[in-house]
Amino acid sequence: MGPTHVSHFNEILGGQQHMKKPEWEDGQNATYREALARLETAITTKFPAKVDMSRIYACKQNPEETVNDYYHRLEQVFIENSGIIKQEDGQPAEVGVWETHLSNAFLNGLSPAISASVRNSCIGVLDGARLDEIREKRLSEEKASEEKKRQDRKDKAQLTMVQAVTTAWIQGEG
Fold first, then answer.
1. Is residue 91 scored above 70 in pLDDT?
2. pTM
3. Who's near 66: CB < 8 A, 6+ residues apart?
4. Domain of life, per the record (predicted)?
5. Cβ neighbours of residue 50 under 8 Å, at least 6 residues apart?
């Protein structure tokens, strides 16, 4: 580390710093906390988060994976690889960069049939619809689909039972 690095750090930190009291929140440690905050800002400015969009684009919904499970898996991959900081303070009034990119990755990673269904049935999906709206729409469609499958299985079981009883009754008469 050359003299220019030392002077740069001294400039950022405001000279050599150390904790004055063992308790972090103690008022006498304010200068130290502020110096560390400036150092953090300088480091994140100099070395921004690494972006690896290929990992995000490679994250696709598995055939047996629910939309909700896929979303949570994608969100983790997105957080680790997008380099975009998520806004934590509630939901902003407008769709931000983080949500826009995650929504796009979500739609592109859904199974083709589900993605087409969402694009066709969710108004505004291509014009910046809220990610939560897209997820809720898809979750309600997924729930309705599961209910239909369950009802179809029940109807088939009832039909099979009626056929078995009818066959047994006919054979018993013969």
1. no
2. 0.52
3. 142
4. Eukaryota
5. 81, 83
Residue 14 pLDDT > 80, yes or no? no
Mean predicted confidence (pLDDT) in 159-167: 81
pLDDT at residue 90 in the model: 59
In single-letter form, the type of residue at position 19 comes to: M
Q: Are 23 and 17 in contact (CB under 8 A)?
A: no
pLDDT in tens, 30-39: 888 888 888 8
Question: From the CB of residue 12, how many other CB atoms can be counted at a distance below 10 Å?
Answer: 14
**Nearest alpha carbon to residue 30 among 41, 21, 40, 39:** 21
